[in-house]
Structure formats: C-alpha cells, structure tokens
Amino acid sequence: MREVGPLATALDRLDAQGYVYVDRQTLREVEPWLRWSPVFCAIVMATGTILAAPWLLWGLAVTAALGAVLPSHPFDYVYNLGVRRLTGTPPLPANGAPRRFACGIAAVWLVATGAAFAAGLATLGYALGGVLTAVAALVGTTHFCIPSLVYALIFGRPGCATEQR
C-alpha cells in the first residue's frame, strides 16, 4: 500500500535526491534530520551574502565540494558523530548522486558569489547569493531540491520509487 500525505511527499522528494535505495523505515526516522545540512548551508550562505563576505562563501564552497565527493556532506558527519547520539536517532544514510550533484553545483555557485563580492560587484553577489540561499532553504524546509531535478533531466532519476514501496 502506497503512503499518502506529507510524509509520502517528503519521501518522494528524498527519493529524487538519491535516497530511493534506503530502507523505508530508516528513511522515515531520519527524514526530519535530512534537513540538517541544507538548513546549516542556507544559514551560512545567507550570512555570507548579507555580509558580502567572500571568505565565508568560499569556506562554504569547500564544504560543499567535500559534500560532492564524499559519501556524506561534512555537516552530516557532525550529525552522525554527535547530534544523533543525543537524539537517539539512526545515522543519516550516505548521499545519493543527485544530492552530491547539488553540492557540486552549490560549490561552483558559492565560488562565483564570493568572486562577485571580491570584485566589487555587490549587486551580482547579492543576486547570486540570494537565489542560492533560497534554493538551499527550499531543500531545508520541504526537501524539494531543484538541482536534483536538473540531475534527473540529465542522467535520469535514480531507481524507481514505486518499486521501493
């Protein structure tokens, strides 16, 4: 029987991010915590953009680049090694290719945003930073990931979500 309601929508959006092969029960338990990294990224992006601080944006770009090449985002490791022990929740699963792709896009976008501020192009920096922050905040609040949709258009959606239910 297929789930319906907000949790079903969240799980479908997580499948689009590459979590289609994660055990459904585990995914239900960690679903709220899969917002952890996007929310922290959005907070740092917003701060770097508001302050027009290239160094902060470039530092986050390194973190995002690591999220693109490692099995999990560095902020996920913070959760897995510390926070989950306080919450009693299971570890976050490794990120799927669409979510790592999103981290790669974010890394490049953050470098460009920082470069705009460093070059004195504040309007461009604010525009780039504002859009990227909004995209990260969307993922952090709804699990709706625009870069994962781009990934699906280019490479196809991972697995078939209906097979997993």
Structure, described:
It is a single chain. By secondary structure, the protein is an all-alpha fold. It has one domain. It has helices at residues 6-19, 24-30, 36-50, 54-69, 74-87, 97-118, 122-142, 146-155. The protein is globular. The termini are close together. The model is unreliable at 161-165 (pLDDT under 50).
Radius of gyration: 16 Å
Mean pLDDT: 92
What is the count of structural domains? 1
Spans of 5+ residues with little confidence (pLDDT < 50)? 161-165
Fraction of residues in helix: over 70%
| Beta-strand content | under 5%
Individual helix count:
8
Span between N and C termini? 7 Å
Query: SS-based structural class?
Result: mainly alpha
Oligomer: single chain
Largest sheet: none
Number of beta strands = 0
Topology pattern, helix = H, strand = E: HHHHHHHH
The shape, in one word, is globular
